Amino acid sequence: MNSDVQRTVILKAWPFLEETIKDMFSSSFPGCFNVADLGCSSGPNTLLVISKIIDTIHKLCHQANKKLPEFQVFLNDLPRNDFNSIFQSLPEFYKRIKKEKFGPCFVAGMPGSFYERLFPSRSINFIHSSYSVHWLSKVPENLENNKRNIYITKSSPPSVCQTFLEQFQRDFSAFLSLRSEEIVSGGPMFLTFLGRSIADPSSKDCCCLLELLTKSLIQLVNEGLVEEADVDSFNMPCYFPYEEEVKSIVREQDRCGQNVANSIRAVTEPMLASHFGNAVIDPLFARFATLVAEHLAVEKTKVVAEPMLASHFGNAVIDPLFARFAMLVAEHLAVEKTKHINLVISMTRK
Ligand SMILES: C[S@@+](CC[C@H](N)C(=O)[O-])C[C@H]1O[C@@H](n2cnc3c(N)ncnc32)[C@H](O)[C@@H]1O
């Protein structure tokens, strides 16, 4: 229900992913193909990419008259992820694989943080991750001066922007180094995550929903429902990097002989079009689309942020907070179309 934007972006990035698989296919090819999806979650997208990867390899094998490989799929997420619901959807998935006459496929869960080692050395042939790597390993430290904010905004001091950036640099470098130990030589890694198209880290193209969430919290402070000190001490553990910030980390990896980037692209997805395609430009549907997008933006933010907000501010705050947030999102979407900037990176292990 809350995965439509991710799904649209996965499909938009698909031609690049297909390109990556074709490049890999032209070199060597194993009898058992180990794929890992990092930050798989437990929604309708969880098996979507895996199905598409298997589908593409199947077609390429047919074209080249090669024997189909067996597939071992590792679905990774944090231990609290609902792996049971994924496992319950597997019989249906296996049925389809059998019907399409794909090679045998074995799916396993791999709970753990992708900021730690997850797999044995040189054991994975292909690593995929979508909409996950913008989550940091933790809330950055020393953000006491980010008063009345929960992420970077125009009023955040420059030191706050630097603190978030440095945490992302540490985390993303660690993520790439850890994966370079796990992936086979020549193995590709394909990552899609939220970023920004403007160097300024407080630019609207990445922070707008979090800014509206902050405004909602401040309204609750003004109404006496939330302590100002609690807002001051809360920050979101995420970062939406600028393309150049990612490139410089990737260049460093290349220098250390670990991973080399084949391509880094930015894919933009207007929030409304991701649900309605071109119909949204039809003025007849515009208001309707706004109402639904508004609902989805609120629900999506709620799904992701509610556990963190509830543990910091208490459960009682959730309903009034999201009621105010819904109003602010509605006002925002009435005057502006929000876009998601996605960075799509294809890399190869040296
Ligand atoms: C928005 S969901 C993306 C789901 C799916 N990949 C998609 O594209 O629809 C982000 C997922 O990343 C997971 N995640 C965040 N930090 C993680 C970490 N350090 N290790 C593993 N998974 C993590 C979250 O638990 C969540 O399920």
From TrEMBL:
Superkingdom, taxonomy of origin: Eukaryota
GO MF term set: metal ion binding; methyltransferase activity
Keyword Metal-binding: yes
GO biological process: methylation
Family annotation (InterPro entries): MeTrfase_7, MeTrfase_capping, SAM-dependent_MTases_sf
SUPFAM superfamilies in the record: S-adenosyl-L-methionine-dependent methyltransferases
The entry's keywords: Magnesium, Metal-binding, Methyltransferase, Transferase
PANTHER family on file: S-ADENOSYL-L-METHIONINE:CARBOXYL METHYLTRANSFERASE FAMILY PROTEIN
Identification of the protein by name: Uncharacterized protein
Species of provenance: Citrus x changshan-huyou
Lineage: Eukaryota, Viridiplantae, Streptophyta, Embryophyta, Tracheophyta
